[in-house]
Specification:
Elements: E1 4-9, H1 17-33, E2 37-42, H2 44-47, H3 54-70, E3 78-82, H4 87-97, H5 102-106, H6 109-120, H7 131-134, H8 136-145, E4 151-154, H9 159-176, E5 184-187, H10 216-225, H11 243-251, H12 254-266, H13 270-297, H14 299-328
Helix pairs in contact: 3-13, 4-8, 4-14, 8-9, 10-13, 11-13
Bound molecules: tryptophan.
Tryptophan is lined by residues 6-8, 10, 43, 46, 140, 143-144, 152, 154, 158, 161.
Amino acid sequence: MKQTVLTGIKPTGEIHLGNYIGAIKPALELAKKNDYHTAYFVADYHALTKFHNAEEFKRLSYGIAATWIALGLDPTKAIFYRQSDVPEIFELNWILACFTSKGLMNRAHAYKALVDQNHQNDNDQDFGVNMGLFTYPILMAADILLFQSDIVPVGKDQVQHVEIARDIAESFNHVYGETFKLPTYQIQEDTAVLPGLDGRKMSKSYNNTIPLFVEPRQLQKLINKIQTDSLPPEAPKDPDTSNLFLLYKEFASPSEVQEMRERYLTGIGWGEAKKELFQVINKFIQEPREKYNELMASPEQLDEILLEGAKKAREVCIPLLKEVKRKVGFTI
Ligand code: TRP
């Protein structure tokens, strides 16, 4: 029996190089290998907790879908869908909510961080907290449990949410007997953490990202902004501590990497290193960028792919939802 790997990406901003290397690339490789059932989705309901501008929301949701497809996700190999196209997730969300103590939600980190901030600013503790944000981990548990997921690849900040999904599954199983599989998280630690423009981890929250699909001129401009030290061009440089080299490594072929390593050691100017970095990233991204632009210009294609995916997702999850509803006492 193949295990199920499931993960979602929330459409809250433009996908950047760090998202690609840290999350999307390993997920694409996994889907190709056929060793697992893979389910990847656009977590649009989750984004609604903070995005209240319809046009922007729509554009970002399509953006995530277009990114996966442009980078080569084969929707015949992975189940690929939009969360909001699978209403069963929402039905399960409510049922799970009735098995989740409020105290568990009080301890969830995103909510707790807001409460702490409110305390510091002398605000009411729940100032700016909507119920979507508060119950966010329950919806995430529904995403995960409805597909009997074994493995959930996530960033470090999402580990607690997967643990909460386990807790909720256990509460349910405890009352009604073995029903949900207990998921485990997989942190993408073996993959590199990409440095951003300022050398810190590339992240939306640090505002130091290089978006994946920017046009070439903008890409070159952003690369020029990457911080370097002030060594003169001819000075030997340590590739392993260079942010430019760390990025180069992820996009170049092994022989290009080897060659570049030697150029660092014998002395390469930062200007030159930046040009080379631009070349490899641009070469890699050229085709996906075209595909991405094409998909964004005609989102009907995306709708078709996503609806087909939702159909498959529903075939997989409806039997479990029925079982759950029967167990709690609904006549269906
Ligand atoms: N909360 C995740 C994030 O912010 C996105 C997400 C929603 C998710 N549902 C999920 C990830 C289920 C994994 C599994 O990154």
